[in-house]
C-alpha cells in the first residue's frame, strides 16, 4: 500500500515538473564571463578611458583593460556573459557598461571587477511600476494619453530580457543615462542605485531604437533610427526632437563645446555649430556606416567606420582627414589616450600612434 | 622447421626412373607426381580462369569509408549524420589563377566563365549549389536606409569593358568574398563544386577516377588558352581519390621492376636460366591466382592491398629458390629430375608450409586493427599465402620434374656443397660470423646492440601518432595535389584541416536560443585551443544577419533572445549558408579550422570538445564528435594508438609461441626474439628520423617485419640447435648453421627487400613510407639475426638442452 501510494506520488510529482526541454542550459545572465586569452581579440563594441586606463567591452561579457595605452590587455571579472556594447567612465574609478539582455554593470575599481546593477529580467517591471505610479499621479496627461504610454511600454516590458541597452553615458559618478531598443531609457542620479524610466520623456512616438546618448558641451544628445536626434531640455526634463537633413540611422553623436556631429549609416555625418538648429553635411568619403567616434585634446575628433576607415579632425570637425589601414578591420569604437589611437572592432582592440 | 634442416638428410641417388618406386611417398606426393599432366592442366586452367577474372572484374578503389575506423564512435556519429552535413560533405574547390595578371583581366573572366560552365555540366556535380563569380548565388549586400540591397557579384551582361570591370570591382568589395571566392591577392578566384553522392542518371555512386580525369581534361584544355596564362588548382576529396587511384596504377607498374630485381637475385644465386624462369613463373602464377581470387571474392584493389602481390611474389621467390637448391643438388648427384623433384617435395613440403604459416602470422595479426583497408590487406595476403602453397610447393617441383636444371648449374651447386661439407672457407663475411660466438665478440656485439637499443628507444620516444605534414597526408608533399592545396591555403582564408562537432537536437531545435548560445559557447571553447584558427557555425551567420537587419550596427552582432529574430536569421542563412544546418534544423556543425592536423593539435581539440560535450550535453542537445577531415583523422589516430600496442602484443606473442613450438627451449626463444625487438625499436627510431608518424599505413610494417623477419632466426637456430643437440660445440654448430643457411638467409632478405623497395618511389606517400620501413626491417632483421644470434647464444645456448 505504502509503496503504491509512494509510486502514485512520484508520478504526480513527475507530471508537475516543468517540461525540461532545455535541461542543462545556464542562461547568459546566470553565467559569468569566461576568462580567455582571446578576450582582447574578439568583437569589442564599447571603448572608454578610465583616467589613463583604456577599457573595452564586448561579446560574451568580456571586458578588457589596458594601462599601457593599448599595448597589453588584462581581462576583468564580470558576473554575466551577455554581449556588452557600450561603456562609460565619468571618473577613473567609477564606470558603467551596458549591453544585451538589458544588462547594466558597474565597477568602482577602474574596470577590474564588475557587479550587476540591473538586467532585463527587472527592467520591464521597474519601468511599468514607475509609469503606473506616474499615471496614477496624473503625470502622464489625460487618461487616454496615459493609457497609450502604458500600452506601448507594456508591450516592450513584456519582452523582458530580449531588449538590449545600446549606450550608456555618465556625466559624473552619480548622474547618467542608459538608452536602448524601443525607446528604453533610464536615468540615475545616485550612481545606479535607482533607475528612473524616461520612457515618456522622449519625443520618439514610434519607439525607435535609441543607439547612443552622449553629453556634448553642455548638452546631452540621443541618436537613433530613421534620423532620430534628441536633445535634452533640462528645464522640461525631456528629450526634444532635433530636425536633421538625413532620415537614416544615426549610430552616434560626438563633439565638444564648439560643435556637435551626428554620424551613422552609409558614411553620413552632419555637423552643427549652433546646438542642432542648423546642420552641414560632412563629406566623409566613406560608403559604409560610421560606427564610433571620440573627442581628444581640445579640438580633436576621431571617427571610425565599418570598413575600418579612420577620420581625424583637429578643428572640431570643420575638416577631416581620412585614413585607411593596410588591413582594414570593421571598427566599432575609438578612443585616444596620449598619442595613441585605440580602435575596437570585430577582431578586438588594437592601438597605434595617432597620425 | 626450416627447409634447410632436412637438407642434411641424404636420400639415395636414383638415376634411372625405372629404379624408382612410383608408389613411395605419402598420399599427397603420389597424388601430385603420379598425375603430373592432370596437375599441370588443372593449374593452367586455374591460371587462365583466375587471370580472366582478375582482368575483367578487378577494380580499383580508394573508398574513403574503407580507410577510416568505421566502428569508432566518432566515425559512427559522422556517418550517421553525413547526409545532413552538407558543408562537410563531398565537394571540390577549383581555383583558377591568372599567373600574369589579376582576376579583372577580361580574358581571365572569359576563361573562368567557360570553366564554370564546363564544371556545371560535369556529371556528378550538384549544380544547384555550384558557386563562383559567375553564379548568381554569389551575392553582395549592403544596408541602406530602406533596408537590405543586393545582387549578384557578377554584373548583368558583363562584357569585360572598363565600366563593367569597375562594377565588378565594386561588387566584390561590398560582397566580402575576398578570401572565400576571390584570392587575397586578387590573382585567383574559386569555383566551389559540391558533388552528389550518386549519379542522377545511373543511380550508381560517383566514379571518382572518372571525375578526376574529367577535371584533368578541363585543366589541360584551359591552361592551354592562348592570350592568358591561367593555372588551375583543384582540391577536394574526389580529386584526392582520383590521384590516389592513379598512384595505385603507377605502383602496379613497379611490379615489373621488383620482378626484374628478384630475377637477377635468383639468377645470381642459381646461375641457371631454366630454374630462374621457373621460380619467377610460379611466383607470377601465385600473383595471378591471388588477384583472381581477390576479384572473385568481391574485393577491389586499394592503396593497401595493391601491395600484397609484391609481398606474395617476394615470399614466393625466396621459397622457390630454396626448392630449387635442393633439386639442383640431387640432380647434380645424378638423380633423375623427376625423382629429384619428389625428393625435394618430401624434404621440403612440410617445412615450406610451416614457414609460410609463420609469414601468415604477420598478416593475421593485422586483423585486430579495426580499419577496413587493413583487414582487407590481412585477408587478401592470407589468400596469397595459401596460394603459394599450391604454386611454389606443388606446382614448382612438378614443373621442375619436366624441365630439370641446367647441368652446369647442378654441378656448380654440388661443388659448393662439397666445399661446404669439408668446412672450406666460404670467404668474406661468412667466415667472420662464427667469431660472434666467442666471448669478446659476443660482448662487443651485445654492447653495440644495447647502445643501439637504448639510443633507438630514446629517439623512438619522440614517435608521433598520426600525420606530421600539412596537406593531404596520403600524397607526397610535392605532389600536384598538395601544391594546389598549399596554394589555396596560402591565398584563401580558411584552412582545409577541419574539425567539426555535430550538434544534434530535435527537429527545429537548432535555431532555438539556448541551442545557439550553447553552440556559441562550444565554438568559443574550441577557439581557446592552441591550433584552432577560427570557428564557424550557424550562430555566426545569424549574428551577421541580425546586425544586418538593424542597419548593420555592430552592436547587434548578437544571438537575440527573440525567436522571431532567430527564425529570420536562420531563414536568411538557409539561402546564403545552407551548409551550416540541415533542412530539419536538427543537425548543426560547429566547425573549427585548424592550423594543422598534427596529433597534438587534434588531441587538444578532441579533449576540449569531449569535455564540453560531457559538461553541456542534454537529452535534447547532444554534442557528437566528430566530422570534418581532422575529426576523422582524430578518430583514426585514437584507433591507431590502441592498435599499435595490441598489435605488437599479438605479433610478438604469436612469434614467441611459434619459436617455442619449433625450438622447445625458452632460451632459444629469447635468442630468436631479441634481434627482432632491436629491429622494431630501430624501426621506430628511423620513423622519427624520417618524420614518419604511426598511422594506418605504418601499423602493418612492424607486424610484417616481425612476422616475416623471424624466418631468419628459424633457419639459423634450427640448424644450430640440431647440431648442438648432436653434441657439436656452439662455435662449430653456428659455423655449420651459417654454412648451410647463411646464403639462404641472405637470399631471403635480399629478395624480400627487392620486393618492397620499389614502393619507396610510389606517388602515394604512405606506400613510400611502408616501402622504406619494410626494406629496413627485412634487411636489418637479417643482419641482426646473423650477428646477434651467435652473440646471444654464447650466453644462453652454450649448452644445448
From TrEMBL, chain A:
GO cellular component: photosystem II
Entry keyword set: Hydrolase, Photosynthesis, Photosystem II, Signal
Residues covered by the Photosynthesis system II assembly factor Ycf48/Hcf136-like domain: 56-116, 162-283
InterPro entries in alphabetical order: PSII_CF48-like_dom, WD40/YVTN_repeat-like_dom_sf
Organism in which the protein naturally occurs: Dyella solisilvae
One biological process term in Gene Ontology: photosynthesis
PANTHER family: PHOTOSYSTEM II STABILITY/ASSEMBLY FACTOR HCF136, CHLOROPLASTIC, PHOTOSYSTEM II STABILITY_ASSEMBLY FACTOR HCF136, CHLOROPLASTIC
Molecular-function GO terms, alphabetical: hydrolase activity
Pfam families in UniProt: PSII_BNR (PF14870)
Protein name in the entry: Glycosyl hydrolase
Signal peptide interval: 1-23
The organism's place on the tree of life at top rank: Bacteria
TrEMBL record, chain B:
GO cellular component: plasma membrane
Listed Pfam families: MMPL
Membrane topology: Multi-pass membrane protein
Residue stretches in coiled coil: none
Membrane-spanning ranges: 37-55, 251-270, 277-298, 304-321, 348-369, 381-405, 441-459, 647-663, 670-692, 698-719, 740-761, 773-797
Primary location recorded for the protein, binned into one broad class: membrane
Occurrences of domain SSD (ranges): 280-402
InterPro entries given in the database record: MMPL_dom (IPR004869), Mycobact_MmpL (IPR050545), SSD (IPR000731)
Subcellular location: Cell membrane
Keywords in alphabetical order: Cell membrane, Membrane, Transmembrane, Transmembrane helix
Annotated protein name in UniProt: RND family transporter
Organism (species): Dyella solisilvae
